[in-house]
Amino acid sequence: MKKTTYMVLLASLTLPLAGCQTTQNANKESGKAVALSPAEEAFEQAAIKSGISNTSLVMLEKKYKRDSQNASAALAYAKGLRQANYLNRASLILKPFANNNAPKEGILTEMSMIELAMGNYTTAENYSQKAIVQNPQDYLAYQNLGIALDAKEMHPEAERAFRKGLEHWKGDPTTIMNNLALNLATQGFIDEAIEVLERAQALSPDRIEIERNLRIIRTLNER
Hints:
Blueprint: H1 3-14, H2 18-30, H3 38-49, H4 54-66, H5 71-83, H6 87-98, H7 107-117, H8 121-134, H9 139-151, H10 155-168, H11 174-186, H12 190-203, H13 208-222
Helix pairs in contact: 1-11, 4-5, 5-6, 5-7, 6-7, 7-8, 7-9, 8-9, 9-10, 9-11, 10-11, 11-12, 11-13, 12-13
């Protein structure tokens, strides 16, 4: 199986729907009521599952507005905005804190997540790199760096970032294992990709996307 075939497949599985995000975000921020497309509906469900409700977002906003110079309040509010898919607003809130000479830990990583969600991969890469310099054990920053590099087709560099993130990971590692496996498959390392996904599936047997990716990569390998 040619490498380009894997790249087409994995791009369809991993790249964010940047156009839908931008459209939905603009609709929300303008206050217009519009019908959601199936893709936008999926983003709405993701926001609901993230645990961010309108009530909690309002509370975060009030806390931020009481002290708009408070980095912790800005970080919490921006994270809530991102999870609810208000990406432009999240960026505007957090960017001044990210551009400080000594930003609070976590802000650079959150900015990289916001930029990834907006499809700004070079900017996401830069914020991730800065977050890693600030904290060499920031496993989320390594994952964000890997995703950004993968999107720029810098696959060996992305693999190194994913492996470093996995080395420092805390909690359930199946998300970054899934990303690493897709990266390996894109590079043509199919057997290793399957092995990583099998280990991830053993850790989280209910993760549908892992089972799906494992099935697809096995099928392509057989062909």
